[in-house]
Design a protein that fits this description.
The chain has helices spanning 12-24, 37-40, 61-75, 89-93, 96-105, 152-157, 172-184, 208-217, 244-249, 259-279, and strands spanning 28-32, 53-55, 81-87, 110-115, 163-168, 189-194, 223-227, 231-237, 295-296. The protein is of the alpha/beta class. Strands 2-1-3-4-6-5-7-8-9 form a 9-stranded mixed beta sheet, with helices on both faces. It is globular.
Length: 299
Amino acid sequence: MHPGHLACQGCGAALAMRYALKALGPDTIMDIPACCWSVISGPFPHTALNVPVYHTAFETAASTAAGIRAALRVLGRERTTVLAWAGDGGTFDIGLQALSAAAERNDDFIYAVYDNEAYMNTGIQRSSATPYGAWTTTTPAENFKQRPKKDMVRIMAAHRIPYIATASVAYPEDFIRKFTRAKALKGMRFIHILAPCPVGWRAQPQHTIKIARLAVRTRLFPLLEIEDGVRWRLTVNPANPRPVSEYLALQGRFKHLTTAQVESIQESVDRNWGDVAALAGAAAVGAAPPDANAAADEP
């Protein structure tokens, strides 16, 4: 990345891009559909990105990446990394059909979704990545999001693609290691990044990393890897998890929730962690998985 971009203060998506390109290097071609990053990179002819970028239609991140890979194959440039970089709206919702098709074909590129849990670029409307209980402009406090967040990790795992990972801007070593590993593989690779949005989450910009870390430490956002859709492994395992209320309290989008509703979210987080830990071969109470690639989280 070049110095300077148009992201808001504390933008998790801007930091995620910096980490991703640090891992992938200059021999990378990206495509970005309509999303925050189609603005963050700067107005034509300027850009904050020091790699070739195609700006594409909202629903075409995966299909464009597949086309770029096909063109590179004709040119004999097999070593160039192709990266589709999309928001949750263009991944969980509008771009899901193209993404599923590319995954079924096992097209050879990395698909990264920076998930800020709403359509932030167009006015903070809810997406299917918006979690239960959250305020958005289309799910106001008196009618907050009633349905749980779509589980994209399990949806992609059902496609049996070679590599899936989750990543957080609060864990840069884990983040960069996963992109480095993805770069070395062939076929479809899907990385789900939690990228806090201070504006949409009604949070202070200086709390971005704290919020992202709490998402992991509360076990709300497990950091994991999945190989071929079936071999699950935790890469950060918080043995002494924090209550999810600490994560919610830093975000104004949840301030309307009652104590009972927060407790319901905690129960949901605990159930999901138990399922993920079982798939990863780890004890739900926090024991390290047998693979030993997982690191214990620190305070």
